[in-house]
Amino acid sequence: MVQQLVDAAHQCFAGVGEGEVADYIPALAAANPDHFGICIAASDGQLVAAGQAEQPFSIQSISKPFLFALICQAIGEDSAKEKLGVNSTGLPFNSVLAVERSGEGLSNPMVNAGAIAATSLAPGDSAEAKWAFIEAGFSRFAGRPLEIDATVYASERVTNQSNVGIATLLSAQERLWFDPEISTDLYTRQCSLSITTRDLALMAATLGNGGRQPVSGDQVVDPVICQHVLAVMVTAGLYETSGDWLYDTGLPGKSGVSGGMITVIPGKGGLATFSPPLDGAGNSVRGQLTAQYLSERLGLNLFASRPAT
Ligand code: GLU
After folding, report:
1. What are the residues whose beta carbons fall under 8 Å from the beta carbon of 243, sequence distance 6 or more?
2. Calpha distance 120→94 (Å, rounded)
3. 2-298 architecture in CATH?
4. Ligand 1: which residue has its CA nearest to atom 7?
5. Which residues contact 15 (CB under 8 A, 6 or more apart)?
């Protein structure tokens, strides 16, 4: 039944022509707008897919919940909350104003400032040691060794001045725990990791499965950490339209500018989609339609409320 619904969603939304492919990172503009992959990974490791679920693309902002999970595991979830902040900024993901407005440099690990600050907290006292921690952690979530998309990394590296600016401002507010340029570079590397829709479904399913990777059985982070990560995804996973998303799906999600999107179904699994055309807020158009379609038909909304029988 799940396969039939996933196939039906693919058929229903493949023809949707709305949205624009992101081009502020030049390499992303080369994405094929027709690519459309869907994959569901159940908590027991079963996979159901349709379309281009094996097409590689860069993870971009979908790295943020996984990085936050790894940092919570490394420094403790209370310390991570106190250092990074967990409230929604209500401003775009790359907003400098959001950092200034909070007065103390707190934002949210789902936007760039919070994610760069989180990157700076990775264990290790050199860029390479921190990168080894990040790369290994992401690979454990995926259940296979992940590599950087060198073209995307090179392209983003020369166009990420505003992220360097955010990191410098955070550093001035004593909200960065490593060199601003190196922290930004590590963040950029992590955003350039190449994944597929299938990888993302398993990564999302790991967050929904108390931190245990469904296929490898690896306990990547503690269950309580997943609970906090999912809460933060609800506050800001879909940029400024996170409220609309929650209203429509009732599930924690995270999107990224390369067109990927994850939806976590706690206790059941993870849904991932890939379709590059984005709406005005930066969320994949077909990804949102698919998540809403499947959430409704599979009865996944966490806020579902019915009279007691
Ligand atoms: N690496 C991208 C940036 O920092 C990620 C943006 C996103 O996916 O939201 O601009």
Report:
1. none
2. 17
3. 3-Layer(aba) Sandwich (3.40)
4. 61
5. none
C-alpha dist (Å) from residue 87 to 2, 25, 81, 102, 106: 35, 27, 10, 10, 9
CB within 8 A of 249, min separation 6: which ones? 263, 291, 292, 295, 300, 301
pLDDT, position 229 = 98
Please report how many Cα atoms fall inside a 13 Å half-sphere around the Cα of residue 83, on the Cβ side. 22
d(CA 161, CA 184) in angstroms, rounded, equals 9
Q: Which two tokens stand for residue 27?
A: 């390499």
pLDDT, tens digit (0-9, with 9 covering 90-100), for 187-219: 999 999 999 999 999 999 999 999 999 999 999
The span from the CA of 100 to the CA of 107, in Å, is 10
pTM of the model: 0.97
Residue to substitute in 112, 185, 240 for testing ligand 1 pocket (most ligand atoms within 8 angstroms of CB): 112
Residue 300 alpha carbon to ligand 1 centre in Å: 28
pLDDT tens digits for range 9-35 = 999 999 999 999 999 899 999 999 999
Question: Is the sign of the CA dihedral 182, 183, 188, 189 positive or negative?
Answer: positive
Phi, psi dihedrals of residue 195, rounded to the nearest 5°: -135, 170
The dihedrals phi and psi of 4, each to the nearest 5 degrees, come to -60, -40
The rounded distance, in Å, linking the Cα atoms of 267 and 206 is 10
In the predicted structure, residue 101 carries a pLDDT above the cut 80: no
Q: How far apart are CA 205 and CA 213, in angstroms?
A: 7
Answer whether 251's CB lies under 8 Å from 300's CB: yes
What is the band of 131 on the pLDDT scale with cuts at 50, 70, 90?
A: very high
CA-based R_g, the chain, Å: 18
Question: In ligand 1, which atom is closest to the CA atom of 282?
Answer: 9
DSSP 8-state secondary structure symbol assigned to residue 80: H
- The closest-lying atom of ligand 1 relative to the alpha carbon of residue 61 is 8
Quote the CA–CA distance of 198 and 37 in Å, as a whole number: 9
Contact residues of ligand 1, CB 6 A cut-off: 60-61, 93-94, 112, 156, 163, 191, 256-257, 282
